[in-house]
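Ticket #4471: structure export looks truncated?
Reporter: QA, pipeline team
Priority: medium

Steps to reproduce: submit the single chain below to the structure queue and open the exported record.
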Amino acid sequence: MKLLLVSALAALLTAPVAAQDKSQLTATNALPAEDDLAVRQVIARANQALDTGDYELYASFYTEDAVFTSGFGSTEGREAIIAAMEASRPFITNKRHVSGNYVVNGEGDTAVVSTYLIVFERETDLTYVGSALNVDTLVRTDAGWKIQRHESTLDPATERAMNALMGNQ
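Actual output as written to the record:
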């Protein structure tokens, strides 16, 4: 169980704990409904691609020069994102990444989406693994909306649990 929790928490691939930026909650620059739905679909489809273990598909939701920031550092570019996911495969396998409480702001060809991420174990039992705040910046490309920047911040209880299990008190 301890190994499972460590593995699952590491799957969050998140940055250190930071205060939530409240400006995202009060912004008034809403996207048109069609764009709002499209950026939500990108986030949902990327999460599901991650859960399938197809990291090339996962990276296809990012721009070629995307920046992926996590508790393990920052990675730039699709190939580096794929490599980071491959290196984390043991921690990501058999997890379910669920985003909710979408707050979407944007203007023109740029959108900023904040979501709460909840991660569950889905094979051995139904176990809550951890949670985080994700903030994704998306841009409209010729191929549709793509994630240009992904930043993930562990919730404090998740970070404490992860540090304790990894011996980083």
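Status: closed, not a bug. The export was complete when the record was re-opened. Leaving a note from the reviewer for reference: Confidence is low (pLDDT under 50) at residues 1-17.
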